[in-house]
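Weekly sync, protein design subgroup
Attendees: M.S., D.O., the rotation student, P.L. (late)

Item 1: inverse folding check
M.S. brought a backbone from last month's batch and wanted to see whether the design step gives back something sensible before we order anything. D.O. pointed out we never logged the input encoding, so this time it goes straight into the notes. Structure tokens as presented (509 positions):
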């Protein structure tokens, strides 16, 4: 399926897509609206994978079947699926909330009571998975959602039936995540439900301490520690240390079952808000911004896309998604406007890995564009510099001055797509974000002549407070500054914007 266009509403099965939430090697995940108005998360497989891998559709069908078999309050329910479609898809319940990994990054380790609730929720989820005759095989913090009412376990992409040891990847592939794999999983031995319990223990330790129980400077070292080393339980609350230790026993027979775990950590006091306030804030902020996104969609604006997560993060569940899509939100509470600007910037950037360069490898010189750039009257002909080549990029600059001491400077840098270095658009985005100062920079998503911009505050020690604007348009980053006695802060924005717009037009023509 092609990228959604503003004048071409896109559907996946019976679901109208609202936004492309994320993309991975297997496909994309979109936020959709069901005919009855429910929100769903839809995983859609890249069609080209089916041509490259004859067994992929069969594996996806097994994933769908496995997801449908697991029922209960601790997983994301499957709503619908079509593994036989030209581009197979799986729709599941939309579950607002950060993943455990994202919550730990944003707010730090969980307090003991919240960690105990986590352990109980995971035990419930594994009981449901194992009760369906399945083994999850990839339980880890990124596959655990902290929803408003408790835990959800997601991602059944490598789940297998108990006793089924059929390979589902190419020879030599590693199935699982090293820090959370069981010893028998590392050694390629037959797996039992006890393997998931080991992963639960590793996840619990990480939730309590912010780090996995087995560390190493490389993947082989981590795997060696999982098989032979002792887990680092320092930092785990005393009341949960024995629980974690039993789950992390090397011998699967020595580990408790999920039901036994529940008897150990259960008996919790009911709570309508089971998570720490910082996590509840993440959930609340996602709900606020999701509402804004839906209002945007109903206003017939284009579906939007996102890039990698930012500090305050939320996730959506896709049962069976091999690569969970996440929505990253930088939230400057209580300012929804700032929240929404950052959110739109994020969601517009998801397709940069597939974006073709708009601008060539070598930018035009100042002399080539100076007559097309619109600067106020009274400025002299500009001094030029460049173009100058750097590693994978090149830049040029024009500087205009006048007799009253005002100065306008514009510098444009083109980033070329290179092998192993990402696309030019990705590299330009990376450069732009270097100049983003949270709480100081103002993001502009409505420039009209480029993808996005960042307005920087004037330097505190500047003689004449000025305007500084960084603009990204696909694989170009443009910096424009306007300063001087005739253009103080408050009076320079319009000139800065006009210069930037004319430079974008000039260097692209």
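Designed sequence read out in the meeting:
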């Amino acid at each position: 399926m092609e990228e959604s266009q503003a004048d071409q509403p896109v559907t996946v099965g019976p679901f109208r897509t609202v936004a492309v939430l994320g993309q991975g090697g297997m496909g994309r995940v979109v936020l959709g609206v069901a005919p009855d108005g429910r929100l769903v998360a839809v995983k859609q497989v890249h069609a080209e994978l089916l041509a490259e891998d004859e067994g992929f559709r069969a594996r996806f069908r097994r994933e769908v079947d496995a997801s449908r078999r697991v029922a209960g309050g601790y997983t994301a329910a499957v709503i619908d699926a079509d593994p036989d479609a030209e581009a197979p898809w799986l729709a599941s319940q939309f579950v607002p909330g950060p993943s455990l990994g994202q919550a730990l990054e944003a707010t730090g380790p969980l307090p003991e009571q919240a960690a105990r609730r986590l352990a109980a929720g995971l035990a419930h989820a594994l009981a449901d998975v194992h009760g369906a005759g399945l083994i999850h095989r990839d339980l880890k913090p990124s596959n655990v959602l902290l929803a408003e009412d408790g835990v959800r376990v997601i991602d059944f992409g490598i789940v297998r039936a108990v006793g089924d040891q059929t390979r589902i990847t190419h020879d030599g592939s590693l199935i699982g995540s090293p820090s959370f794999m069981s010893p028998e999983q590392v050694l390629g031995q037959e797996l039992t439900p006890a393997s998931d319990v080991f992963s639960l223990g590793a996840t619990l330790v990480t939730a309590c301490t912010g780090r996995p129980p087995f560390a190493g400077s490389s993947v082989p070292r981590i795997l060696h520690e999982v098989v032979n080393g002792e887990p680092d339980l320092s930092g785990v609350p005393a009341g949960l240390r024995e629980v974690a230790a039993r789950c992390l026993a090397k011998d699967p027979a020595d580990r408790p079952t999920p039901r036994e775990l529940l008897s150990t950590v259960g008996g919790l006091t009911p709570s309508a808000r089971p998570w720490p306030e910082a996590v509840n804030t993440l959930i609340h902020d996602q709900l606020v911004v999701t509402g804004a996104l839906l209002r945007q969609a109903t206003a017939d604006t284009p579906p939007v896309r996102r890039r990698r997560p930012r500090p305050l993060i939320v996730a959506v569940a896709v049962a069976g998604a091999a690569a969970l899509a996440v929505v990253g939100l930088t939230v400057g509470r209580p300012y929804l406007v700032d929240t929404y600007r950052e959110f739109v910037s994020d969601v517009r950037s998801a397709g940069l890995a597939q974006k073709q360069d708009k601008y060539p490898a070598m930018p035009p010189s100042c002399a080539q564009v100076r007559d097309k750039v619109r600067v106020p009257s009274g400025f002299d002909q500009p001094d030029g510099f460049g173009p100058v080549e750097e590693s994978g990029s090149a830049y040029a600059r024009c500087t205009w001055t006048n007799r009253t001491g005002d100065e306008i400077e514009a510098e444009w840098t083109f980033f070329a797509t290179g092998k192993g270095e990402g696309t030019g658009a990705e590299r330009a985005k990376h450069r732009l974000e270097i100049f983003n100062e949270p709480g100081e920079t103002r993001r502009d998503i409505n420039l009209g002549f480029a993808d996005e911009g960042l307005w920087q505050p004037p330097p505190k020690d500047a003689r004449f407070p000025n305007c500084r604007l960084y603009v990204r348009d696909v694989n170009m980053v443009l910096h424009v500054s306007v300063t001087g006695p005739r253009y103080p802060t408050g009076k320079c924005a319009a000139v800065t914007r006009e210069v930037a717009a004319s430079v974008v037009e000039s260097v692209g023509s």
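Discussion: The radius of gyration is 26 Å. The CA atoms of residues 41 and 296 lie 18 Å apart.
Action: P.L. to compare against the previous round before Friday.
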